[in-house]
Amino acid sequence: MKRAPGEQIDNVERVESAASMQEELAGMRKLHALQVSLAAQSDMRLALQDITALACTFARTECGCVQLVDEHSNDMELRVYRGHDERSPFVQQFLKDGFQATCDTVRRERRQLVIEDIETFTPLKCTPDYEAALCSGIRAAQFTPLFNRAGVLLGLLSTQFTMPYRPAGHELRLLELLAWTAADYVERNRAQAALRTSESRLAALSLVSSEVHYRMSSDWGEMRTLTGKGFLADTVNPNRAWLMDYIPDDDRAMVRQKIDAGIHAKTPIIFEHRVRRADGSLAWIATKGVPALGADGNITEWFGTAADITARKQAEQRLRDSEARLALVLDQIPIGVGLFDTQGRFTYKNPQLSEQLTDRIPSRDSVHGEEWKGVDQQGNPVPPQQFPGARALRGEDTTAPVDFRHLDGTTGRWLRVTAVALRDGSKVTGGLTVVQDVTGQRQVQAELGVLAERNRDILESISDAFYGVDAQWRFTYINRKAEALWARSRAQLLGKVIWDEFADLIGSATHTAHLQAAQTRQMVRLDVASPVLGHWVDISLYPTGDGGMSVYFRDISDKKRAQEQLRASEERFRTALTIETVGATYFDMDGRLTDANDAFLKMSGYSRADVEAGALTWQNLTPATSRGLTAQAFQELKANGSTTPYEREYLRKDGSLRWALFAAKRLPDGTGFEFVLDITDRKLAEAALREVQDRNAFLLKLSDALRPLSDPAAIQGNAACVLGEHLHAGRAYYVEVDRKAQQYVVERDWHQPGETSHARRFALSDWPMPLLTDAQTWVVRDTAIDAALPDDQRAAYLGNAIGALIVVPLIKSGQLVASFVVNQRTARDWTAAEIRLAEETAERTWASLERARAQGALIESEERYRVILENALDYAIFTTDTSGYIQTWPPGAEAVFGWSAEEAVGQHIAMTFVAEDRLAGVPQREIEQAHHTGFAPNVRWHQCKDGRRVFIEGATRPLRDGGVEPLGYLKIGQDVTRRREWEDRQQVLLAELQHRTRNLMGVVRVVFNRTQRSSKTIAELALIYNDRLDALARVQGLLSRLNDGDRILFDELIHVELSAMGAIDAQGQGEQVVLDGPSGVRLRSSTVQTFALALHELATNANKYGALAQPGGQLQVRWRLLRTGNGTRLRIEWSETGVTMPTPGEAPQGSGYGRELIERALPYQLQAETTYELGPDGVRCTIELPVSESMRLDGDEG
């Protein structure tokens, strides 16, 4: 039988549509398999290769590629290509500029781009992309953009064809779904990579840091972790007794108070307190805790560090002890000492000063200040504004004393006052004053005039002869004793030259002594036989201020005889002084050594001949720095007959200096005897100790200056300032080596006022430092002559006004990374201690810079980590402790599950699992698997706060810090509910298609058989059969219309379905069918397909086995609209009667699929309420489901 052309075309389209549907379903299965494999794939390149291969399969081509947008430059980069020669122009153009013209078109239009023929595609004409494609044999292509859920373009998925071509519609849809899957994978892979990087950096910083790290709960009630670094005991598991374990009893109230204040203010907690070390001893730490705030601004937990400050606290205690000892000493000294502030008020006075002055210095004493009159050392009045205290408060550096006379009318007391300013940097903070009572001295000065007259009387009354001469050796005074010895009157001698009057003296020892005293202007004393008098005399010559000389002499003939008698006794005594450990000397009162034992000679390096020559005196054994102390000791010896033991340096014959303890005694004959004990070794040890103490004080100051800094430039500047000021150098700075730029870099320096700054960049060639590569400190003490400085560099350093320098190289991993430089204009003999301080400063500066840069990198990493967590809202990323209790709950977790951080933190992860998984112990098994294998997949349905279920694809991994046991667990999961529901729906549709196809073939067979039985001729058979097939086709057409915006009417659906079965005619009439209900009931588009399938199953079963299959059967379908609290609903009652049913125990006819669809699928998918019952004479079924909101019941207004 010949068919019409239109019918043939319809058949072809139906065949093609069915083939397309089959291909699309096959593609869906491949896509689902790829999604499953991508969930476990961490290598992005392998994943992109699998994606490209599937894209080529969907597009029916061998050529394809994937481009990704670079995260930093926003440029397209070719990541994977397939089916192309690497040397082809097409690939090279991709590698060169990412096929820019095509990419720009897709970026602009933000949709799938299909180029059916590149030669006719106008936007590519005259572009490098156009030429490269044609040269490589590419004639057509499609580009599908990869957008993430936020609409950001991540890349392009493209396929190419060697002939003009346009992929089919279902192929393009599959490519779009593949692009969506690829975008999800790329975004997830990048987020996981960023998270791993951040975690590794955080772990690395924690390992290299020397500080203690800890983590506390939001109320500090629980210490979650503590890494003690061997200083404190580690805490791995949460500890709620940490306050008892770590904090001494006396400090707990203070620590709790600080913590409560920080919690209340939600600000960092910074304070110092004592802790109990791991070994049980007590130590001091400086702790800083920083709160982590949730999205609602509340504290979720605390992170903190603690540094050991025990050494600093001990140093502070030693300083307080030292100040107390100083105060004790000051309280004992016989002069007044005090400290005053900028208002002139005394902040400290020793007891002596308390007796001398009131509560303020005289220039600031408004009550008693007028009682003091000041004069300088020349007796000139001093106004109050020039008083020492007033000048000190103005910052004037002067130590000139002022004598004050107290004018209280009762006493004539005089006080000598000096004052110096106390500064903090350049700011005057007060002053120090020293007050000495000089009332007696003033009285002595007043009596000097009287004493001058008395001295004349004394000279006349003394037993020694005396005369005075002027600078021309003329007699100016002669006392009576001299007149008697010379037998000449003063009238004969005054005004005459001594050498003229006593010519016998010329050339004698007396004459030589006079010349020596006149030349050296020092006292000379000698015992000599006088050629004038003819016997021994003791002569003392004292040069006077006017160039003249005062001379005392007396007869010592008796003394000389006594000395001869004593010599034998002294020889015996000298034998007793052969002790080798203590030196002993004899000397006269002029300081000339007359004898010494071997121990002293060994100590001083002199020989006995030197002593016997008479030229060895305490004056030439004493360095200039100790002469004042020696003179004081001589005065004490002359006044008291002995000296208090004292220490000073002495000069050896070779010019070297040694330290000794001296104690002298005046013997009855007027000579001195002294013990000398060498204490050089002890002094060296004390000096070494002072150097260590000074070094420690400097390093403490340096540490305090660098510890709070995080800016590298500030660290360099402060370190240079502390060292430069301590050494009183001209400049100090830290130099970093920029290998990439081939430059030395000085970010910030320190220099004295007037000196030029060296803070800039230097080319390596402009500042040659070849001597630094061996890691030895380079020391130049005089750039003009020091051999340590190469001659070819000498002019450069002198030209930069550098007279001396220290350069400390910092060699790390075999390379010069930096150096520390100290220099000044003048030459300087750098001490070993100064060089060591420079080396210590260099190393500590480098360490501080490394610490600051590591902390900066950590902060940057944590910020990136925070941004990732805050923006990955479709990823639930959170951490738990080792027992599964939630510790962190970022915004993504809250967005996926619905619980806030306050609600989730502290809860067990089981709350996110569905009830059946909780009962099966899935949460605990997942943790155990992650603990033992390092990875536990988590791909299942989960429970939300509002009761919803979400499908999560993710995993659980342990968090470790290098130990065997984990610190907790990290859970990462993506919400793929929509995809999962789509996949489930896809499976239902596939099953429905298969089942409907079988049913359709059965219906066709039944319709044909029934039609054949009722038809009398072949022509009638063909006519009626074709009509019923058309009705069946119409039903299938209704079932295929999903979500297209149309509204299917229930009465139309039931009419079409029953018409297809041949149960009713075109007017809806049938011998075995009764239809009763309102017309125009609009069904929801989302419910039509499943609902129609249910009606189809009911009708098919009725047609095969039920009321429509048996001659006496009747089918009634009644429907009506109901108003409920949940909206308008449609109730359908399907009732079959007159049906012969299977006997009890006999299997029911049919597959049972229709009943399963009605009782399970409709309630689940359509929120329908259904009943299905096999009655004694047929099926009874009710279906109640929601309908379109546009439906109104009769009587509704509007």
Automatic annotation (TrEMBL):
Keywords, ordered alphabetically: ATP-binding, Chromophore, Flavoprotein, FMN, Kinase, Nucleotide-binding, Phosphoprotein, Photoreceptor protein, Receptor, Repeat, Sensory transduction, Transferase, Virulence
Pfam family for this entry, one: PAS
GO molecular function: ATP binding; photoreceptor activity; protein histidine kinase activity
Coiled-coil blocks: none
Catalytic activity: ATP + protein L-histidine = ADP + protein N-phospho-L-histidine
Residue ranges annotated for the PAC domain, each copy included: 269-321, 644-691, 935-988
Any single GO BP term: regulation of DNA-templated transcription
PAS domain boundaries: 451-496, 569-611, 861-934
EC numbers on record: 2.7.13.3
PANTHER family: ETHYLENE RESPONSE SENSOR PROTEIN, TWO-COMPONENT SYSTEM SENSOR PROTEIN
The name this protein goes by in its record: histidine kinase
Organism, as annotated: Xanthomonas hortorum pv. vitians
